[in-house]
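Session log. Operator J.P. requested a structure for one protein chain; no other inputs attached. Running the standard single-chain path with token output.
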Amino acid sequence: MTILIRPAEPTDYEPLGEITARAYLNDGLLAFGDEDDWYFQELKNVAKRAESAEVLVATANDRILGGVTYVPSPGPMADLARPGEAEIRMLAVAHEARGRGVGQALVRACVDRAAATGHDLVLCTQPAMHTAHRLYERLGFTRAPERDWKPIPGNDFTLLAYELTL
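Structure written below.
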């Protein structure tokens, strides 16, 4: 399978939003666990993130397999990025496309973009995302526990930080 990574087009927003939100829901990664979770709606809203970040899609045979939000610098879509850093957000691969290198291709595209601008790269991930952790570490990311954070005030839910120095 040949995977093409390209910027998302407006016609990609709805299918990519569905893939992203369903991946998080089906993997049990939503804090409140169902379609009423506020983050489920946020994951579906690709148009919103495309306004202030670069959304990339992975396709094969003109079919969307997954996507990622590449945040080129600190700004509205950044959770962790500091000056001189870019950030990866909302990486998701359709269930039927997993294990075929789609996630790796999306992360590499983000690494290439960051390297081209001289930025380091950061991301946060949930503790349960073991497959993603292995992917990030295989691509040279290292844990940055001093940057772990709690996105929901008053809740113990913690996101783990990773960094890649380029």
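Operator note: The two ends are 29 Å apart (CA to CA).
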